[in-house]
Design a protein that fits this description.
The chain has helices at about 45-50, 95-105, 110-120, 140-150, 170-185, 195-200, 220-225, 230-235; strands spanning about 5-15, 20-30, 35, 60-65, 65-70, 80, 155-160, 190-195, 205-210, 215-220, 240-250, 255-260, 260-265, 275-280, 290, 305-315, 320-325, 330-335, 355-360, 365-370. By secondary structure, the protein is α+β, with helices and mostly antiparallel strands. The strands form 4 sheets. A 6-stranded mixed β-sheet has the order 6-7-8-3-9-10, with helices on both faces. Strands 13-12-11-14-20 form a 5-stranded antiparallel β-sheet.
C-alpha cells in the first residue's frame, strides 16, 4: 500500500491567549482516507497547517512512518495540500498547472509529458488541457488542483475544505470523484470539513473535533451509532435527545423516568445506577410511526411506545419526515422510508394522533451523571 503512516502526539497550539489545539493525539494509517470533522473555529485547519509545515506547534510531535517531521520544511515532508480556493496559476493552462511541480524538480519534457498525461486521465481532464482556469467550472478547477498535487507523488495529501466553494449537487459528484481518485492512487488522504455528510460519505476513519480537542475517532458507522457524548451525536447527524432519571437497573437494560413521557426502557450501553441522571439519543430513522397502537408478539418490554400528535409532515419522495409533538414538551423528529408505493397505505397527515415507538437497542446513552 502507498502513502505514509501518520501519528499526531500531544499536539498543542495557541495564538496569544487563545488555545486552539489542546493536547491532540491520533493516528492515520497508511493508505487511509481520514477525515477531520468539526464546526468552524474548532482548530481543524490549524491542525492541517501544522501537519503541512505552515504553522509550528507549541508542543507535541508529528511522526511520519515513525520519523519526526516537525523540523522539516514543507517541501521536504512529502505532504501536499489542496486549499479551499484551489490556488491555480491563472496564466497557465491546465497542462502547465499540473506540470509545474515537475518543472521545478527539473524533470525532462518527456518525463513531464508522461506523468501529466497519466494524471489528466485520472482526473478526467484530457479534453481541457489547453484551457485556462478562468475557462473551467468549479469542479474542473478542483480536479486540476488534485491532479497537480498528486503528480508530485506525495506520501500524504491534505485537503482543506476542498468542496466548500461548489454547489450541493456538484459537491456530491466531486465526492464520488475524490473517493475514486483515492482508490486509484492509494496514498494517505487527510480531509478537513465541517460537513458531516461529506466526511461520512468518503472516510475510512474520521475524527470529530470541537474547541481544539479530538472528541472521538472511529469509522463513520461507529461515530454515528455510538457517539461518545451529546455534542458528537448532535453534530454528526439529526437526532432526538431524552433526559431522565434511572429508576431500575437490570442485567442488560434499565428503566428511566422522563418528565412528560413516563417510564422508558434503555439499553445499558455503559454502567448506570439507580438515581443517575442520563441523556440518550435516538436517531429519526430508528423511530416507527403508525395510527394504530403497536402490538408486540415477543419481548414487549424492549419497546418504548409513546402517543403524540403530528405537528408537521415533509414529503421528499423517497421518504417522509414527521415532527410529532408529545405533551407540549417534546417534539420528536422521525423518518419513514417509502419502501412501497406511498398511496398503498393510509397516509399520516398533519394533526393526526399517532403512536411512535422504538426498540431500546436503537437508542444510545451519551451522558450519565451520578446522583
Amino acid at each position: 500500500m502507498k502513502g505514509s503512516d501518520l501519528k499526531i502526539k500531544n499536539l498543542s497550539k495557541s495564538f496569544g491567549d487563545t488555545q486552539v489545539l489542546k493536547n491532540i493525539s491520533f493516528r492515520v494509517k497508511k493508505g487511509e482516507l481520514f477525515s477531520i470533522l468539526g464546526p468552524s473555529g474548532c482548530g481543524k485547519t490549524t491542525l492541517l497547517r501544522i501537519i503541512g509545515g505552515f504553522e509550528d506547534p507549541d508542543e507535541g510531535r508529528i511522526l511520519m512512518d515513525n520519523q519526526d517531521i516537525l523540523e522539516l520544511a514543507p517541501n521536504k515532508r512529502g505532504v501536499n495540500t489542496i486549499f479551499q480556493n484551489y490556488a491555480l496559476f491563472p496564466h497557465l493552462s491546465v497542462y502547465e498547472n499540473i506540470a509545474f511541480p515537475l518543472r521545478i524538480k527539473k524533470y525532462t519534457d518527456g518525463e513531464i509529458k508522461e506523468e501529466v498525461e497519466r494524471y489528466l486521465v485520472l482526473a478526467r481532464l484530457q479534453d481541457h488541457i489547453r484551457k485556462y482556469p478562468s475557462q473551467l467550472s468549479g469542479g474542473q478547477k478542483q480536479r486540476v488542483a488534485i491532479a497537480r498535487a498528486l503528480v508530485n507523488q506525495p506520501n500524504i495529501l491534505l485537503l482543506d475544505e476542498p468542496l466548500s466553494a461548489l454547489d450541493a449537487k456538484l459537491r456530491q459528484h466531486m465526492l464520488i470523484e475524490l473517493d475514486s481518485i483515492h482508490d486509484d492512487v492509494g496514498i494517505t488522504f487527510i480531509y478537513v470539513t465541517h460537513d458531516q455528510q461529506e466526511a461520512m460519505s468518503v472516510s475510512d476513519y474520521m475524527a470529530v473535533m470541537n474547541k481544539g480537542e479530538i472528541l472521538q475517532v472511529g469509522t463513520p458507522s461507529e461515530i454515528y451509532e455510538k457517539p461518545v457524548n451529546a455534542f458528537v451525536a448532535d453534530f454528526i447527524g439529526e437526532t432526538n435527545f431524552i433526559e431522565g432519571k434511572v429508576t431500575e437497573v437490570g442485567e442488560t437494560t434499565g428503566r428511566i423516568s422522563v418528565e412528560g413521557l413516563g417510564v422508558l426502557t434503555v439499553d445499558k450501553d455503559c454502567p448506570i445506577n439507580v438515581g443517575d441522571r442520563v441523556k440518550l439519543t435516538i436517531r429519526p430513522e430508528k423511530i416507527r410511526i403508525t395510527k394504530k397502537e403497536p402490538v408486540f408478539a415477543t419481548n414487549p418490554e424492549q419497546f418504548n411506545v409513546i402517543k403524540g400528535k403530528v405537528d408537521e409532515v415533509i414529503y421528499t419522495g423517497f421518504q417522509s419526515k414527521f415532527f410529532v409533538k408529545v405533551n407540549a414538551k417534546y417534539l420528536f423528529r422521525l423518518i419513514k422510508q417509502h419502501v412501497k408505493y406511498y398511496l398503498d397505505e393510509a397516509p399520516i397527515s398533519w394533526k393526526d394522533e399517532v403512536f411512535i415507538w422504538w426498540n431500546c437497542d436503537d437508542s444510545y446513552l451519551v451522558e450519565v451523571s451520578a446522583s
